[in-house]
Amino acid sequence: MIHIDNLHINIGNKEILKGVDLQLEKGKVHVLMGKNGSGKSTLTKAIVGHYDVDVTQGSIMYKGENIVDVSPEERALKGIFLSFQNPVEIDGVNNAYFLRTALNAKERYLEKKETNAADFLKLMRKHVQELGMSPDMIARSLNAGFSGGEKKRNEILQMEILEPDLILLDEIDSGLDIDALKAVAEGINRLKDSKRTFLIITHYRRILDYIAPDIVHVLQDGKIVKTGGFELVDLLESEGYDAIQKDL
Amino acid sequence: MAQKEVDKILSQEYQLGFTVDVEEDTVKAGLDVDVLSFISRKKEEPPWMLELRKKALHKWESMSEPHWPHLYYPPIDYQSISYFSAPKKAPNSLDEVDQSIIDAYNKLGIPLEEQKKLQGIAVDAVFDSVSVKTTFSKELKEKGIIFCSISEAMRDYPDLVKEYMFSVVPMSDNFFAALNSAVFTDGTFVYVPKGVRCPMELSTYFRINAKNTGQFERTLIIADEGSYVSYNEGCSAPQRDENQLHAAVVELIAKKDAEIKYSTIQNWYPGDDDGKGGIFNFVTKRGLCEGENSKISWTQVETGSALTWKYPSCILKGDNSIGEFYSVAVTSKAQQADTGTKMIHIGENTRSTIVSKGISAMRGQNSYRGLVKVSPKASGARNFSQCDSLLIGGECGAHTFPYLDSKNANAQVEHEATTSKISDEQLFYLRQRGMSEEDAVSMIVHGFCKEVFAQLPMEFAVEAKELLNLTLEGSVG
Questions:
Q1: Chain B closest CA to A16's CA: distance in Å?
Q2: Å from B162 to nearest chain A CA?
Q3: For residue range B39-78, what is the model confidence (pLDDT) as tens digits?
Q4: B32 φ, ψ to 5°?
Q5: Can you tell me the ipTM of this complex?
């Protein structure tokens, strides 16, 4: 799905990623862990083409194409989705209108028939209910005045409706209560299939117990220093990042 | 812009507009009694009107241009302007029209035939609008509604004109109103009789009618007891005018239980990226809620002109009367706008609502200026004002000048103001969901203006949205 090779990223004048090599496989759920400031969010920003990141070296091959110079919207239309750590609030923009515009943009890009307003509303209601969201989220302004949990559920709602191929979840579990965590994890599990790839960034094991990831990577000081299975999560949980450090 | 250039632009009108015309259509530049006589004669006005014009000129001569607005422009030489322009020669085909205008028409989705009409090109085909207009006129007549030009009204309904003209905006109200009172050449007159609900949106345009009405327009609308009328002014299509100075006056009178809804889309030529050549728009609009329970609602979408100076106001004289002002003002390029409203509460339990949305992009400067005045008699008066500014980019500016003068302890006045900037994070969020940068800006801006657009008649609202997209095109990235 995605093949990152020797990726160096600057933000401002500071080098944050110092040669990341990472392969995310089709149909797999990957986890990315690492200390605060190790460059996890920067890596997702690089994949979606955020303004802040400056690729100084290396490549990001997505479905066989180097996307380093592709615009953010085109990357999105090609199937890359980022659930933001802190989703922005946009006052006055109706949540349903926003999401239908996004869905229609993708449908146009894929030369598919555009979902009309009535069908869209049905679809949205179904997902809103499944996620245990309040029905008034449909008509409220995008993320405006949403609680932390509501914002995260709203990200999952968008993910479910847009059906992306590569899904990056940046701390989707932070600040969630038990019920919200479960609803979010179920949403993720509903989308898991043999063609879709996930990259879950988290500090905690909790969400991973629900999702059962396939591969775990550890990022440290701008590089992937360890890749393994679930046992890595156990190790980090019991001994912290020092355990990896010793190992190196 | 240097003074020399302004003079050149202003005097161009004189040279270009008149040398080709027959002699009796020419008038010298400048303003004096002879010019007023000339205009009055051309408009075939009754003699009393000429006397009023002379009076207005006399007052104007003793007044000076206001300099309190937050607007910067070189001095205007009023004596170098010509105050009666004969219709300009229309182009023979769209090929002769500036390509940028054609592009704008296409983006706004204006049909080809209508594009020709807008440019004043003669067309052979029979238009729907012609027959529609005839049907409309008949229906209006049956209900006793008068809808005609102000010149016609002076001849056919002199008593109404004499009674109401200058009754809301006195000729000496302000410098520009006095100028307009002396030299106005066109405009609209509407009278809706007692108890009649006007069955359709009244528009100045039917687009085709828009030509040559811009410079010194004068509009008078009277809604008699228990009547209702909704009037739409302007047009989303870009309008060019060789006359740089515009000074319009609009007077509205709502009697007991009557309601007037006045909607405007203003898209006069804003000038080039430096504001050069754009229209200077100085407008006085005021409504009088004369009777009990009357209501006047102003909705405006201002996207054009190099300078805008405009404060549609309501005098809430009747008890329980209601005044509303909903505004979207956009300044892009080098445009400057100083706009807002005045709500004067005189009657008891009068209510007013102000919702102002200012958008500044590129080097645009947007000022909201609003006055809420509550007289000692206006017990129970209530006002709510909301002024929001949105900035796009780093070179533009937004300013808010709210004035509050309450002389009644019983009145409730609320003011809320916000200034926000479209952030990179907001744009990125939308782009990450597959929208282009321009679509993302447009979505955020429309969200920002939603409350105002909701007040516009539907067709007008659609046009306004398209227009906004067009105005802000190229303002990011």
A1: 20
A2: 46
A3: 898 888 999 999 999 999 999 999 999 988 888 888 888 8
A4: -155, -175
A5: 0.96
